[in-house]
Every structure is written in C-alpha cells, then in structure tokens.
Predict the 3D structure of the following.
Amino acid sequence: LEGCFDVRYMPPGTVLGTGDEIDIISEEPLILVPISRSQRYIGWQALPIQETANCETVSSTGPPHAVAELQELGFYNADTASYQQDIVLVRGIQDAWRVGTQALGLLGQTVTQKQMETLKDVWGIFASCVVIFGGNTQAWEDAKKLVDSFKEHHTFKRGAIAVQLADGYSVK
C-alpha cells in the first residue's frame, strides 16, 4: 500500500494539521491515506487499524476544511489512474486498494456534476470505465444508473459497463 498508494502508518500521539491548525491527534494507531488532485495534496483520511468483517463499515476522518472539496471534486487515486488506459470506478478507498492502480475511489456515495465533468475531461477521450459498487441490490442499481448516465452524456468514448457482485460481497 505504501508503494502504490503512499499510505502511511500513524502511531498513537501523531499530530496532523495544516499550518497552525491541529486537525487530529491520534489516540490509537491509524492508517493515513493522503488524497491528491493534479499532483497537489488536498487532504487525507485516517482509518483505524482494526479487524472488521466488512471494510465498508470502517469509519474515517479527514481534515474538516477539506471534506467538502474532497467529496465534490475528488476521487481517490485519480493521479495514478490518470495514466491508465481503462479505469474501474469503485466506492471508497479500500475498494480502490483491492482493484489497483487503475481504480478511482469515490469519496462519497454519488458522482457529482463536477466529478462527471472531470471523468469526461480526463479519461473520456481514451479510456473505458467499469463501475463496481458492491454486492447488494441498491449498489447494483446505482452502478447501472451511473453507466446509463455515462452513455447518455457520451462520457467515455470507449464505453462503460457496470459489473454486479454477488449479494453481500464487496470488491476483492
């Protein structure tokens, strides 16, 4: 994870902040996940190190001043994925880790208008897109609806498709 995604270990007591502001002092060990856009660091998420049956339930925190920007504009792993021929759009950071360098992780539950424009501008000319949102009925419906929107707006010249996972499964 460190080599591909620049993920770091944060021991208890680590202070994170911007300038003179302290955003978080970790009381437990955390995984620090930096988020960048156009080679510029715009924020981070901190994930607790714990065993979970379903990684989607792991809570995360980020710098309060950047949360809206991250969700409105950002995708996790966008800088690395911008060099890929084809992309896989998933929900969340951990699903992006499972897919690899071609994954774009949504930092929210839906794709914003600004994100749609970014997808078309950055990847639309040369890439195709696979959308995998998880293994439940709602995730499948969301993925199909998004692919229909991509097709309607001619977002990806090489096409887009949704992949359905079995009920209860996430990207692995």
